[in-house]
Amino acid sequence: MASSLTKDSATPGTPGPEKTFFGHPRGLATLFMTEMWERFSYYGMRALLPLYLVAPGGLHLSAATATAIYSVYLSLVYLLALPGGWFADRVLGPRRTVAVAGAVIMLGHLTLALPYAGSFYAGLGLVAIGSGLLKANISTMVGHLYDGPDDPRRDGGFTVFYIGINVGAFVAPLTIGTVGENVNWHLGFALAAVGMALGLAQFLLGGRYLSPRSDVVPTPMSQAEKASTLRKSALWAAVALVFYTVVGVSGHYTLNWVMVPITVAGLVIPVVVLGRIKRDRTLDRAERSKMSAYIWFFVAAAVFWMIYDQGGSTLSIFADSSAKNSVLGWGFPVSWYQSVNPVLIMALAPVFAALWLALARRGKEPSTATKFAFGLILVGLSFFLFLAPLAIADGGHKAAALWLVAIYFVQTVGELMLSPVGLSVTTKMAPAKYASQMMGVWFLAVTAGDATTGLLSIAGVDLNKTGVVALEAVLAVAAGIAVWMYRKRVKALMGDVN
Q: Whole-angstrom Cα distance, residue 41 to residue 367?
């Protein structure tokens, strides 16, 4: 990226001649590259994960168990974003927390690279912990580079940062996926560790360009609070250790002893957090009304992510066993399907941004509730579309790769209708008291959706069956229609937020 670092003294808000990154503060290059390499490692490993779990040369698990592990892993990543933000706010500050996160993620990928089942699950846990720590804080550090919310470069900076995410997500399956599938699974996981190592090195070397605010611990814990937190953490860790030791020694241990508690937590914690905020008596009437409206969006998002995130599990496992995985006679690894979404995001995101702006100028931009409704309907339609390749496979034939590409395309359009809109409405509707925590609450919608998928898989539901796929499709479309029908009521609850 050296060619993009230029001398610039005319950029608004940039004092004096200094190096910039596409007209933005030099620190954005550090965070861009760090996030790009972290996403490279994360999405590369994620593309391999369900395939490795079912492969005869991998763990050789059933499709249902693989989907459950994949879903529980994703729900855990987003669940840990909430304590990840708390850890930075109370203990280390964003910058040091991200450095620790990078090291933990790298160690996790190295552990995944070891050819042992026990170490594999430990590696998944480490990557989830590190991702939770990083996800909650690196975006905050991007915001620190600018002079408050009114800095004219701020939105553009986040757009450049978002490009870094999708570049990493696009390249990862093409490289890590190819190595893992065609050479050696564990070498692929090791390559993910190399990616995170490059990201961590970039972060440490470019740290001097970051804002001093990123070193600040906003609400540091007192010594008494630290001692109390340490005692409680040690107590719960000891309880878990004793419990699982007893279960293991007694011969009753199975993966469900780990997956079920995490899955239940993924469903219960979002409900508890939203309920606590909703019942807070210190919120004024307008804030409580907005939280009532937000619950609609939260539930809609959970349904959306429940189906959308199966693109990396249910669809990937189907492609591995029942798709041709070739175009015009040219074959490709199954993991390459995971590059379809990021390249579509990069192509379509500017189109949607321009569309909303053009409609807003004419006073015809759809409301947030309407966008959510169409996002849900589209993700439901993607699973109705999935019924076609399922029928082809049931007939004893291999489904064409373009069926899966079409499904990913419809899901991506739905994502652009819902995901960025959800991020925006979360910041707009958050009560002042919970301004920082509400972004973690938004991520909990992903946790709830993935936990639901995990619970179904643990219960033995085959998510590749026609009836189950059709039921999920009907659920999403029905939820979308419900949001659309009640859009005026939701709009009234939102108050001054569109």
A: 36
Using CA atoms, how far residue 310 sits from 39, 72, 338, in Å, is 19, 12, 11
215 shares a domain with 349: no
Provide the pLDDT for residue 149.
62
Q: 248 and 263: one domain?
A: no
Q: Which residue has the tokens 């937020």?
A: 497
Pinpoint the alpha helices (H) of 27-80.
27-54, 63-79
In a domain, residue 7? The reply is no
- The answer to whether residue 483 sits within a structural domain is yes
Confidence grade of residue 16 (pLDDT, cut at 50, 70, 90): very low
CA angle 55, 61, 64 (to 5 degrees): 115
Region of poorest pLDDT, from 267-271, 299-303, 439-443, 458-462: 439-443
Q: 320 and 307 in one domain?
A: yes
- Residue 1: is its pLDDT beyond 60? no
Classify residue 325 as left (phi > 0), alpha (psi -120 to 50) or beta. Answer: left
What is the CA 41 to chain-centroid distance, rounded?
A: 14
Q: Which residue has the tokens 């991520």?
A: 443
Range of the domain at 241: 221-253
Q: Identify whether residues 213 and 106 lie together within a single domain.
A: yes
The number of distinct structural domains making up the chain is 3
Answer yes or no: is 403 within a domain: yes
Do 455 and 467 have their domain in common? Answer: yes
Rounded to a whole number of angstroms, the distance between the first and last alpha carbons of the chain is 38
**Per-residue model confidence (pLDDT) at position 436:** 62
Do both 233 and 346 map to the same domain?
A: no
* 171 alpha-carbon distance from chain centroid: 17
**Residue 420, both tokens:** 């960025």
Q: Which segments of 217-282 does DSSP mark as H helices, in order? A: 223-249, 256-278
For the chain, the residue count is 498
Helix (H, G, I), strand (E, B), or coil: what is residue 490?
helix
pLDDT of 9 > 50? The answer is no
Give bridge partners of residue 375 from the DSSP assignment: none
Q: What is d(CA 257, CA 251) in angstroms, rounded to the nearest whole number?
A: 12
C-alpha 450/C-alpha 306 separation (Å) is 5
Q: Where are the alpha helices (DSSP H) in 55-184?
A: 63-79, 81-87, 94-112, 117-144, 154-172, 178-182
Q: Phi and psi (nearest 5°) for 362?
A: -95, 0
Listed residues 253, 275, 296: the one ending a domain: 253
Same domain, residue pair 214 and 241: no
For residue 141, being part of any structural domain is answered with: yes
Return the pLDDT at 498.
65
Token pair in block for residue 191: 């390559």
